[in-house]
């Protein structure tokens, strides 16, 4: 009976992915390939320059994120300093900021024509937290005594780190690098805002060919190249994560933090510089939202009650914000439902099936949101009710992005629960679902709350698929921001910055609440 239940739940999760992810993607790629010209796109020199720029800027941003994240990871893992919970929250904020807000923040600081390095820095900006949390999570479990033994044998601090600590950290470094590279290669809002039409990645080119040029064959060819890169990155991340889990089992998770001393104060200083670098674009955005051409001005904030200069928007900024909240709430509820069911299956299923399901759940993170959105429009009308005109269309697309986050945060907690508790409850007559309700849910409740909070802010700022699916009369705030910055007019610019600041403030408040929950409830897994 238990196997049947698990099979049905797993089939339901795979069915959701099949209908709302695999079917639309296969449909749009198939329609594009059927139009011919696929080989022509692949032999175009411009295509490979596009590929080179996409992966080149992603590699550069990954390197910057790794260099900036390592001192932060060391401080979080090994040093006891005042204000550590605040530091955790500060580095988490950039990761969950909408990409279009990140782009606007760097535009406020560096200007509209900052060039390719603005794109690299912006992509690295919101991925420092991935490196700090992923590497720091493993670093905290490494026994200091191995490095101390190397020091006692005459090795310098640098040599001891290179010969003992760094090899032990390689699984986490590899996993973090793969995930960061994946996020940077598929970045949409950052490149759209900072590229200025001069710099395009595969993601923005797919959008251009699909929406403006209606070149489905070309968009399909580029989508296949992107999917191949995504699969390679996910495979690397899965291998690194498996090695990382093995390393954690082989080492004692002892208390390893201590007050900084000696050269460790340099790490504290470097972490301070990283935090200052993270705060600079945020502060710049806030200042830009209350200034105009002639000095300080609240015209942008007052403009949230209107539709911009000469009716640029079909809804007011406030209505767009409410649309964002409604869609994000619906998406979070759906993602929690699917994610918790998937996590329960992953805990109990056999390893091979669990690995397949886990990989399937991660795939939506890397596939072009534009491809997915256009696929919705050419497939979902075949379902009863024609979801293309439904207000649930945007939440379904956003839920595909939030669900992997829910799984990644809840799954480690469920796996850490002593199975003997479940066995005892079953012995006393509790059925499988009651065991989950009485044992798993209370112990994982804080991680579920954290996943809901992070998922909500991620859905709130989702821009890729939403920009394609949201109707003008039901535009979300990120879509409204993109429209405002594409139109001339000082009021449009001020309104766009005020809307970005509003999104950012909501994000910060939610992240602080989640971080407080994390501190009270202990480890909640990682995002």
From TrEMBL:
Q: Cross-referenced SUPFAM superfamilies, in alphabetical order?
A: MetI-like (SSF161098)
List, alphabetically, the CDD domains matched.
TM_PBP2
User: Which PROSITE patterns does its entry note?
Assistant: ABC_TM1
Source taxon at top rank: Bacteria
Kindly state which keywords UniProt assigns to this record, in alphabetical order. Answer: Cell inner membrane, Cell membrane, Membrane, Transmembrane, Transmembrane helix, Transport
Topology relative to the membrane, per the entry? Multi-pass membrane protein
Q: Which subcellular locations apply to this protein?
A: Cell inner membrane; Cell membrane
**Presence of keyword Transmembrane helix:** yes
| Record field: transmembrane | 51-77, 89-110, 116-142, 163-196, 216-240, 265-287, 327-349, 361-383, 395-414, 443-461, 495-514
Q: Which residues form a coiled coil?
A: none
Task: Give the protein name, as stated in the record.
Answer: ABC transporter permease
Q: Which organism is it from?
A: Saccharopolyspora cebuensis
């Amino acid at each position: 009976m238990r196997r049947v239940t698990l099979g049905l739940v797993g089939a339901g999760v795979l069915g959701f992915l099949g209908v709302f992810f695999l079917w639309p993607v296969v449909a749009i790629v198939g329609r594009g390939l059927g139009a011919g010209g696929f080989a022509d796109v692949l032999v175009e020199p411009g295509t490979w320059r596009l590929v080179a720029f996409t992966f080149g800027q992603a590699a550069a941003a990954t390197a910057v994120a790794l260099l900036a994240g390592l001192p932060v990871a060391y401080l979080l893992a090994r040093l006891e300093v005042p204000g550590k919970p605040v530091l955790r929250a500060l580095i988490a904020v950039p990761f969950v900021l909408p990409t279009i807000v990140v782009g606007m923040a760097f535009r406020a600081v560096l200007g509209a024509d900052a060039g390719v390095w603005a794109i690299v820095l912006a992509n690295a900006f919101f991925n420092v937290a991935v490196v700090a949390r992923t590497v720091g999570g493993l670093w905290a479990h490494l026994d200091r005594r191995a490095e101390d033994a190397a020091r006692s044998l005459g090795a310098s601090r640098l040599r001891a780190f290179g010969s003992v600590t760094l090899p032990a950290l390689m699984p986490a470094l590899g996993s973090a690098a793969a995930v960061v590279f994946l996020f940077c290669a598929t970045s949409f809002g950052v490149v759209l805002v900072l590229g200025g039409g001069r710099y395009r990645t595969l993601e923005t080119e797919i959008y251009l060919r699909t929406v403006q040029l209606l070149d489905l064959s070309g968009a399909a060819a580029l989508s296949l190249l992107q999917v191949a890169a995504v699969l390679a990155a996910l495979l690397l991340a899965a291998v690194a994560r498996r090695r990382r889990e093995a390393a954690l089992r082989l080492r004692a998770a002892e208390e390893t933090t201590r007050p900084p001393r000696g050269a460790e104060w340099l790490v504290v200083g470097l972490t301070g510089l990283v935090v200052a670098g993270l705060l600079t674009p945020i502060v710049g955005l806030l200042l830009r939202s209350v200034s105009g051409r002639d000095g300080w001005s609240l015209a942008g904030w007052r403009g949230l009650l209107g539709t911009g200069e000469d009716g640029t928007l079909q809804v007011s900024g406030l209505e767009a914000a409410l649309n964002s909240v409604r869609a994000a709430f619906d998406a979070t509820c759906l993602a929690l439902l699917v994610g918790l069911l998937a996590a329960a299956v992953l805990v109990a299923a056999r390893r091979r099936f669990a690995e397949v399901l886990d990989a399937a759940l991660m795939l939506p993170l890397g596939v072009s949101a534009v491809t997915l959105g256009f696929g919705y429009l050419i497939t979902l009308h075949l379902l009863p009710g024609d979801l293309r005109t439904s207000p649930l269309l945007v939440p379904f697309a956003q839920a595909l992005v939030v669900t992997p986050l829910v799984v990644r945060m809840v799954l480690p907690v469920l796996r850490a629960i002593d199975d003997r508790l479940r066995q005892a409850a079953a012995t006393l007559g509790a059925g499988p679902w009651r065991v989950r309700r009485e044992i798993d849910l209370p112990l994982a409740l804080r991680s579920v709350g954290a996943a809901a909070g992070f998922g909500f802010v991620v859905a709130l700022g989702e821009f890729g698929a939403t920009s394609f699916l949201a109707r003008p009369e039901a535009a979300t705030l990120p879509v409204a921001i993109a429209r405002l910055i594409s139109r001339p007019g000082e009021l449009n610019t001020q309104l766009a910055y005020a809307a970005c600041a509003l999104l950012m403030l909501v994000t910060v408040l939610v992240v602080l609440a989640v971080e407080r929950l994390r501190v009270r409830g202990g480890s909640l897994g990682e995002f």
